Amino acid sequence: MQFPFQLARDREFDCVGFGTNAVDYLIEVPEYPVFNSKVELNKYTQAAGGEVATTMVGLQRLGMKTAYVGRFGDDPAGSFGLKSLSDEGVNIDHAEQVAGASTQIAFIVIDARNGERTVIWKRDAKLAYAEANAPIDLVDRASVLHLTPHDVKAATAMARAAREAGALVSIDVDNIFEGIEDLLPLVDVFIASAEFPARLLGITDHREALPEMMRRYGCKIAGVTLGAAGSLLYCDGEFIKTPGYDVPGGCKDTTGAGDAYRVGMIYGAMMGSSIEEAAKFANGVAALKCRSLGARTSLPNRSELSDFISSNIKTDLSHRSTM
Fold it and tell me: Residue 99: which pLDDT band, with cuts at 50, 70 and 90?
């Protein structure tokens, strides 16, 4: 099935990202600690993360032209986060460090047995964008706007400007924020975490929830990421179920796997792939990301992704259904 939209081409940026960045402190433990206990860690590391910033890095590694809009604190973590983007070639002309603010951080506890993680995070209120601060002039230079809804009014202004400029709007969402009902009708590609539809709609069955999301908000594609099980997408009255891939060498860390999935979907759309092919790219990027600690550490380049998909072609079982 082909994507139900035409992307604007030959723009300065393939994708502009608006939303979260973070500096992650990743702590691997032999097993997740029980309450009121002590456990010796295996190892720890500091790494750049954040949903949208990570997605821009992933797209850049796949040869896309990207720009990131977001705020960091004026602390060492902020300088580290900004440099992590510029080193990858992501345009940061519209990113900034806010005086007196602390960069968003996350302490992430990773269970070494399976790579599953628990995230403990904090975002300084000084990093928030007001609607008036949203750089809406940037979106007419992009084919795709990818965002998170943490600053809902600013995100809505960006999405509205993107629609007016003929850019596609993609969202990464796992929590409900006040005012999100104004933003969602402006979204074309609505891919959420597995738990989000129940929070938003009160519907736990994904095959009921995704058509309802499309009916209510008018998105062109609705979907959920399902971890190791892959993903489920809904478009034009059909479901596209795509299984996940085994992580080469075993899963070390699932941090940022959802962000990686969006990388593959946007990349597939930009490459003119079918939805089924894009979902394979998305699950492939997510699997490769899980090879090591950190949201971005093992994000693949284009040849790595191509080789990985080709090597797994015999086990690729993507399928469509209407029920």
Answer: very high
CB atoms within 10 A of CB 85: 27
CA angle, residues 242, 289, 253, in degrees to nearest 5: 105
- The answer to whether 149 touches 177, Cβ cutoff 8 Å, is yes
Is residue 172 within 8 A of residue 35, CB to CB? The reply is no
Burial class (CB in 10 A: 0-12, 13-18, 19+), 57: buried
Q: Give mean pLDDT, residues 133-145.
A: 96
The neighbour count for residue 321, using CB atoms within 10 Å, is 9
Q: 235-250, pLDDT tens digit by residue?
A: 999 999 999 999 999 9
Q: Is the pLDDT of residue 6 over 70?
A: yes
| One-letter-per-residue 3-state SS of 139-164 | HHHEEEEEECCCCHHHHHHHHHHHHH
DSSP secondary structure letter of residue 241: E
271 is in which domain, residue-wise? 13-20+51-102+127-321
Can you give the pLDDT at residue 313? Answer: 75
Residue 110 lies in a domain: no
pLDDT at 75 over 80: yes
Q: Is residue 4 part of a domain?
A: no
DSSP β-bridge partners for residue 231: 225, 242
Query: How high is the pLDDT of residue 71?
Result: 98
Q: How far apart are the first and last CA of the chain?
A: 16
pTM over cut 0.70: yes
